[in-house]
Amino acid sequence: MPERPGPAERPARQNTTFPSAGATAHGYLALPPSGRGPGVLVIQEWWGLTDHIADVADRLAAEGFVALAPDLYGGSVAHDSDEALRMLKALPVSRGVELLSGAVGHLLSLPEVTSDTAGAVGFCMGGGFVLYLAAVEPRVSAAVPFYGVVRDEMPDFSGLRARILGHYGERDRSIPPQRVEELAETIRRQSGTAPDFRLYPAGHAFFNDRRPSHHPDSAARAWESTVAFLHRQLD
């Protein structure tokens, strides 16, 4: 993982509210040092909008992006896996996608955003939402699921317009490589576009440097390729 930006390089950050899906949504917004750049959504893990997710938004902002992390739990953060599972189950996929589509619209409406389409980066639960969102939201042109978990029914990828770069762990017991390949084949068959799914010698949540599962080398490689991919698709 690259070093975090120093005080002089640190992007501007702020909590923000915006209309989404008929309600007032909350989130965390990080602006690049230049004040302008392409727009990227950062979608939370099942824990909620944690310091780690805000830190990812900061890192993307330091790389030149306007990063918005919507709060899908309305301010709640889970403290253990049982609580996280309850909160995940209380958020229907359709409602999450609706809220995220509203966040895309808000992000692209910001005067600081220079791109006509948005990127979406998500982790675990958020990685699954990246796939669901990209399947239905034409304003998303770059989708990056980190160990994305597809819940309930598989989305219909026949209308997919986004390019997909995905990061998965070879030792992830919840999403074994066979499931990753099955997902890739479904996307290829339905959309006619092959996703770029990459496997790393790591387990689940290898990017999260706040957890024991963190695998620094895999996280650094995935981050470098993600930043380059987003710039290629959005600049």
Can you tell me about this structure?
The structure is a single chain. The chain is 36% helix and 26% strand. The chain has 235 residues and is of the alpha/beta class. The protein has one domain (12-234): Alpha/Beta hydrolase fold, catalytic domain (Rossmann fold), CATH 3.40.50.1820. The protein has an 8-stranded mixed β-sheet with strand order 1-2-4-3-5-6-7-8, with helices on both faces. The longest helix has 19 residues, at 216-234.
Short account of what is shown:
InterPro entries: AB_hydrolase_fold, Dienelactn_hydro, Dienelactone_hydrolase-like. By secondary structure, the chain is of the alpha/beta class.
Number of strands: 8
- By CATH reckoning, the class would read Alpha Beta
N-to-C SSE string, H for helix and E for strand? EEEHEHHEHEEHEH
Q: What would you give as the CATH superfamily?
A: Alpha/Beta hydrolase fold, catalytic domain
* Rough outline: globular
| CATH topology tier name | Rossmann fold
Helix/strand class: alpha/beta
**Fraction of residues in β-strands:** 25-35%
Strand order of the largest sheet: 1-2-4-3-5-6-7-8
Structurally, the number of domains stands at: 1
Protein name: Dienelactone hydrolase family protein
InterPro entries: AB_hydrolase_fold, Dienelactn_hydro, Dienelactone_hydrolase-like
Organism: Streptomyces kebangsaanensis
Pfam families: DLH (PF01738)
